[in-house]
Amino acid sequence: MFAHNKRLQYTVRVSEANPGLANLLLEQFGGPQGELAAACRYFTQAIAEEDPGRKDMLFDISTEELSHLEVIGTLVAMLNKGAKGVLAEATEAEADIYRRLNGAGNDSHVTQVLYGGGPALINSAGQLWNAGYIDSIGDPSADLRSNIAAEARAKIVYERLINATDDPGVKEALGFLMTREIAHQRSFEKALYSMEPNFPPGKLPGDARFADVYFNMSQGEGDMRGPWNSDENFNYVSDREEQGGIDGGGGVQVMLSEEENLAVQALAMRTASDPDSNPTTGAELGSALAMKGDKPVK
After folding, report:
1. pLDDT digits (tens, 9 = 90+) for 232-265
2. pLDDT tens for residues 90-102?
3. Residue 39 to residue 5: CA distance in whole angstroms
4. C-alpha to C-alpha distances, 88 to 20, 70, 75, nearest whole angstrom
5. DSSP H helical segments within the chain, as ranges?
6. Which of 42, 134, 183, 271 has the fewest Cβ atoms surrounding its Cβ within 10 A?
7. Domain parsing of the chain, residue ranges
8. At the topology level of CATH, where does 19-193 sit?
């Protein structure tokens, strides 16, 4: 059961209307790293979670993300409020309204004209929110790692938004939202590390023959060695011959019925190319005419 409290989790103070900034903030309302995506990701994970502790944590954080959606949406609405009234009531000349909506090269005219200045479920470029942003896989070890990365990405977006405004109230609210991403990341990390074992994700172990191998597939200037490919941690393979067929084979094999095999052979014969042929192509004819300056015959 959900119950809404009209008191925001954090105070929203906006010094002046700024539809351009409002448009940027939509990134955290309806964007892939935004609060709605986070709320839906953690909420659906919570419903499917079998561990009571993780279930409780996911419900707590998903519900808090909805409160953050309310904060960022309120910021968008407040920043749009001045232009919203002017556009709706036509209290300025057409050119002044146009400049207000398109000042500083922003695209706020999209959100103003289409959505009336409200916090639309789009990102800052106008892309509609979609469920493809939710990347849960149903394994707690994999999902918690994804959640940690999601919180990190959201924090980076908030940092960029903070750097794009000098409004002290907006900066303060965005700083709160950014800081909560750090707190959520800590909770997810604690939950992940409380699982033993937690790597690799899933149940099946990896094949011991290949688990500690690093293939140096991109070779040349810029090759680097570090803990990610050191001899201490990996069998480092640079030889091109050793990089292929590492199970002792490297070919292909398929078992077909006699009927299937005959059909495939017939297909191969019917569609075979003659390696000794050299047919003249339309591209060659056109090229020859162009070089001679002749016109093609109709």
Report:
1. 999 999 999 999 998 888 899 999 999 999 999 9
2. 655 655 556 666 6
3. 17
4. 18, 24, 20
5. 19-25, 27-30, 35-48, 52-89, 94-102, 108-115, 140-163, 168-193, 208-211, 240-243, 258-270, 282-292
6. 271
7. 19-193, 211-241
8. Ferritin (1.20.1260)
